[in-house]
Amino acid sequence: MATGRFVSYLRVSTQKQGRSGLGLEAQREAVAGYLDGGKWKLVEEVVEVESGKNSDRPELAKALSLCRLHRATLIVAKLDRLARNVAFISALMEAGVKFQAVDMPDVNDMVVHILASVAQGEAKAVSDRTKAALAAAKARGTQLGGLRWNLPSVADKGRIAALKVRRQARERYTKDVLPIIEAIKAEIQVASIDGEEKAVSLRQIASALNERGITTARGGEWSAVQVQRIMDR
Question: pTM of the entire structure?
């Protein structure tokens, strides 16, 4: 039984299919059937009309952004076609969002995990090749480890990597939420009698974000101070 928030991503290959709805209705019905029952909310349905060979997927980027903003799960009707698309898998791996395929409900993030395992295997192979090269150099009499004292410790490396990940996540979230803030400002601005636009307060923006169910980067409710921090970045 489905629970939580979802963003559905539907895709067809041609403009003709997009206009006629051919293929979209079947996907839409599949998603609706999966979500039938339970306590869930469909935040938005996003439709992409793109060839599978095209790596530019603006609507997919929009869907992933919505998932991050609403802490929602990306749901697709069929995994088989999307799983063969490098652009889709790459975007999904980098997005950091939950994923659900209707036609393979027990799979969830398996595809992403498999690809992550492949990447991990490649990293191990690089490490093994490096060790082999160092061993060969040592056998030739090359002096190794002279600058070891100048290398950062494992803890330092981990801390640096963690800071980088957090910074990237913060920058990505800011990029996601800024267009929403601008849209809110445009919606609630009221023109006065003399034609001058009335300023929109940070508190109004925070209230609108909370009403839309958009959380802060840490999952909490918005305040005027938090809105200001985002706008200052």
Answer: 0.64
